[in-house]
Amino acid sequence: MRQSALIAATALSAGALVVAVARGQQPPQRAADLPVFGAEAVVIAVPVFVVDKAGRAVPGLTQDAFRVEDDGKPVPIVAFQAVDAGAPPFAPGMPQVTRAAARRQFLFLFDLSFSTPDGVRRAREAALQALDQGLAPGDLAAAATFGSAGVKLLVGFTSDREQLRRAFQDLAGLQQDRRPDPLGLAFDLGVRLGDGGGLGTDARRGDDPGRGAEMDAQLRVHLLQQDQVERQIYAGRVQTFLDGLEGLSRLLDSIQGRKQVLLLSAGFDPGVLGGVDGAQRVESTRSVTEGRLWEVDTTAHFGDTQATQQMSGLFNALAASDVVIHSLDVTGLGAGAGAESGGRGAGGANRGSESLAQLALNSGGRFVKSANDAAAALREILDASRYYYVLAFEPREGGKKAGQLRRLKIKATGDGLKVSHRAAYTLPAAGARDASSARLATADVVVKGLEGGAFELNAVALPYRTAAGSLSLPVVLQIDGAGLVPKDARGTLELEVFGYAFGADGRIVDAVTATPRLDLAQLGATIQAKGVQILTSLRTTPGPNELHFLVRERSSGRAAALRVAVTVPDFAGGAAVLSPPLFMDDPRTRVVVPTASLGHPQLEIPFRLGEVPFVPDAAAVLRNGEAREVSLFTWKAPGLASSELEARLVGGAQPTPVGARLVRSLKDADGFTRLVIALTAKDAPKGDARLELSFRDPDSGQVTITSAPVRIE
Fold first, then answer.
1. pLDDT score for 390
2. Tens digits of per-residue pLDDT, 374-393?
3. Architecture of domain 105-383
4. Does pLDDT of 18 surpass 90?
5. Pairing status of strand 323-329 against strand 367-368
6. Angle, helices 161-169/117-133, rounded to nearest 10 degrees
7. CATH value of 3-32+451-712 in 3.90.1150.10, 3.40.50.11930, 3.40.50.11740, 2.60.40.10
8. Residue 415 reports pLDDT greater than 80
9. SS3 sequence, 57-114?
C-alpha cells in the first residue's frame, strides 16, 4: 500500500489534517437549503398514536382527520407522515422534520433494586426474545438499569440488535475490558465477548413476617422501632427510584419523538406514597385509639407527602418529555410469587403491581400484571404501536417563551378513537446542554440519519477490494470552509467528527472519530477556499450500507450531519464493477486529515495514480470552458478503455453534452484499472446536476453508465 506517498504529500500543505466525507446519490444541498435539526428547530414534530375501542392501532388515517391545538389555540399542520413500524425506516420523500420523530424508540429499563435475581433473569430473557421477535427492523432501542446508584444507561438508542444483546447479557457491568462508544450507540465496539457472567442485584431481603402476638412489650417496642428504620430506608429507595425516573425522562427530552420505556420490575410498595391499608392500617389505628402512639409509624400510616409529590412531578416530567412507561411485572404467577415481591411483607406481590400500574396508567402506557410469558407481554406492547402518525406544526406566535411549558392537544375524528401524544412541550431555551443530554442529542441525529445543519457536508465513498482480498469503503468527508470559518478568523479551529457505517440490518459495522485542531493563522485561507477533508477507510459488508456523519465545531457548538447510502459489491463474481467519477484534486492544496477507523486501524487509501496520490473533491465544480480530470476505478472491465465514451449533464430541462477524452489507463497491483478522463463543459446551465459517463462497446453495443453529482459554474 502506498499510503506513505499520500501522507507525505499532505504534510507539505503546511501541516494539513485529513478528514473523511461520504457522498450521496443526489446533487449536494447547499447550506442555505439545509433543514435545521436539534435545539434550533422551529417546527415541532409529534408522534400521535391512535387506537380503537379494542386498543388496536388504527392505520389509514389522513392529515384531515387530525386537529392540533397549541396552548389552546388551533394551529395548521405543516407536515404529515403515516408510519408503519414494519416498513423501512426511511420512506421515499419523507420530510426531514417528520423523519426525526418517525421511528419507534424503546428503552428497556431493568429494575435491579426492587426485583429478585430470578425476576431480573426472566426480564432479561423476555427482552432478548423481544429483540428477535418483537422489534420491527426500523425500531431503535436502548438499555438501562436501575440499582443502588440510580439509573445507568448501558447503550443509547441504536439500531444494532447485537449491541443491545451484549448490554442485556451484562446488566451487572462485569465486562471491564469493553471498548465504549463515544456516542453510546454501541455497548462494545471492540472484540465480541461472551455473556457477562453472573447477575448481581441489590434486591431487598424483605421483612420478617414471623412476629408473634405473645411477645413481651419490650421486645415488641424494639422490633417496631427496627421496622420503622427499615421502612425509612425503603422509602428512601422509592424516592431514589422516582428521582431516577424523573431524571431519565428529562434526559430523554433531548431525543426527538416519543420514547417508550419498557420497565421490567417487581414494583415497590405504594404504601410509602398513600399510607398503609388492610390489616396494617387496622393494627395501626388500634394503637392510636389505645394510646400506644410509640407503636405508630406516622409515615406508614398517613403516607409520605414528599414521595407523593415526587410522583406528581414525575408524571409532569414524563408528559413534557414525551415519555411513556409500559410496566411489566416480572414476579410471575404461581407458587412463590409473593416471595419475589418488590412490596414489603406478606402479599407484597400485589402491592408491587399497584405501583407498576400507577406508573403505566398515569404516563399513558400499558401495564402487564404478573406475566408468566413476559416475552409475549412485550410483543403485545410493541404491536399496539405499529401504526402511528407524525404531525408537524409551527409553534403559535405570541405563545409562551422558550423554556416555558406549552400545552398540546391533538384530536382525531372517528368513532371511538383514542389518541395518545405528548401532553406538553417547551421551546428550547438558549444555553449549552449538559454533557449527557448533548451526547444523547448527538447520537439521536446520527442514528436517525438526519441531514442538514449550520454548514455544508459532502462525501465520496468508494467500494474497494484490497490486494489481500478484503472489502473496505474508503471515504472522503468534505466540510465546507466558507460556512465553517468566518473570513480573517484567527486562533484554533477544533472539530469533533463522528462517523458510523451501518449494515442493511442496522448493525454497526464500523465507526470513526476525529478531533482535529487546526491553526487558522496558518490554514485559514486554505480552509476558506477548499474546506476540510476527513479521509478514512471503513469496514463494510456486501450489499446496502449507510454512512452517517456528524461534525461539530467545538467553540460555537454549530453542527452539521450527512447520510449516505452505498451499495457495496462483493467483487467475488465475474461481474464488472465501475466506480462513480472521482473529481481529482492535489492533496497539497487542501487541508486533509487521514483518520483510521476502529475496523481498519491500519489506514489503507487507494486514491492514487501509480505513485501519485490524489484526493477526490466531494463538492466538485465544473466550469464552462475549463478542463477538469476525473478518475474511474474499474474492476474486471478490461474492454472499457476501448469503448466509445460520451459525457452529459443531467438535471436541467434537457441533457447537456460535455466534451470527454480518455487521457490514460493505469493497472494497479490491487487489481483495479484506473481510467483518467478529461472533461470540458460548454454552455452548460449553471446549478446542480449529475455528470453521466457512458461507455458503449462497439462490438456488442452494450452500454455502461456511471454518474456523480457536480455543480456547474
1. 92
2. 677 777 777 888 899 999 99
3. 3-Layer(aba) Sandwich (3.40)
4. no
5. parallel
6. 170
7. 2.60.40.10
8. yes
9. ECCCCCHHHEEEEECCEEECCCEEEEEECCCCCCCCCCCHHHHCCCCCEEEEEEECCC
